[in-house]
Amino acid sequence: MLLISFPKFLPSQPLLLSSGPDNALKMWIFDQSDGSARLLRSRCGHSAPPTRVRFWSRGGLGLLSSGLDHSLRRLSITRDVQSNTEFSQGSVVKKARAKGVKAESLKLPPITAFAAEMTRAQEWDSVVTCHAGFHSAQTWNMHNHAIGKHKLRSLHKAAKPLCVAITGCGNFCVLGMSTGHVEMFNIQSGIHRGEFGKPQAHKLPVRGVAVNSINTEVYTGAGDRNVSFWSFQRKTRLTSVDLLSPVSSLVYHRDSSLMAVACDDFSVYVVDTDTRRTVRVFTGHSNRITDMVFSPDSRWLLTGSMDCSIRTWDLATGRLLDYFLVDAPPTSLSLSATSDFLATTHVDDLGIYLWSNKSLYSSVPLRPLPGDFRPLTIELPNTRGDREEGEEEEEGR
């Protein structure tokens, strides 16, 4: 039973507004014959902290997010009323009522990683998700806002998908497994289309995977301190780059062929996949790096860490351009297509936060920060009812 924290009747109307810890605002109307109320309309977000967010739309203003509430949501930063939608997982609520259990218990486990590609979104499923402790990846249909047709399961029984990448053509996805295997599937049919490496791609779990823009190479990183380059067609290893620490994640920028690789020693390696060499190494974080994102023009690399910092690195000079702290560690970062907005999610926080890029609208010096720079701590905005604010004022007196 959820606690209703802010019930309020609208003046001279049979309408009741309510909110609670489920991150929802609901309007109830009292028009039943027995005097009871029914739900008229509602606005809601993630009921548990979101853990992954990505800009995804042709205009660059749409977001995909997943969270610990077992849900995948689509929203727009400009038209929130029409576009804030949770992807359907079937008749979960109806089945839960029949069995007398919570709906969350019948949903898929929380999403740990996802990839989306808009090229074929109108024709077939265009989103693939990996789930905590789950042995198969799930496809989703963006056009219908619903779960897709296929569960993509490895040929190896013990393998669990940890990371995923979709090709630019929207036809294939590549899954990195907990057993070190890397496998490819056709998204439209769900058919297994090959496996990279024999007997497996890596000796330890695969923590990052990417595909280049013309479907000729696949890139993987794993806990064995190795970043491998693979032939997309032959599924054979082309070369590899050995690092000083196990790989924790990687992101790839298709237009520039640059790949950022985060490691367990809190450093970030930038690899040029054309020359297959490390071109930059960034250090400075003091805790695990949770996410990274390239700017669309590949001039900047943004990194977020459990040390509560978000940093902006200049790739041309290899210097730190911006650095600030937040009061809750960031868990995910995503830049819009025009670099005007940065979306972030944070530990134990229900919100998805949007940050404006001031360098696009005002004169901001983009000089490297000095070595003794002390970052500011920015408090994340929150929402509180008038009642809570009044109670704090009384306590202050």
UniProtKB/TrEMBL annotation:
Alphabetical UniProt keywords: Repeat, WD repeat
Region forming the signal peptide: none
A Pfam family annotated for this UniProt entry: Beta-prop_WDR36-Utp21_2nd
GO CC aspect terms: Pwp2p-containing subcomplex of 90S preribosome; small-subunit processome
Native organism: Geodia barretti
KW Repeat (keyword) present: yes
Stretch list, region Disordered: 377-397
GO-annotated biological processes: rRNA processing
Ranges for the WD repeats: 199-240, 282-323
Compositionally biased region (Acidic residues): 388-397
Superkingdom assignment: Eukaryota
PANTHER family in UniProt: WD REPEAT-CONTAINING PROTEIN 36 (PTHR22840:SF12)
Full protein name: WD repeat-containing protein 36
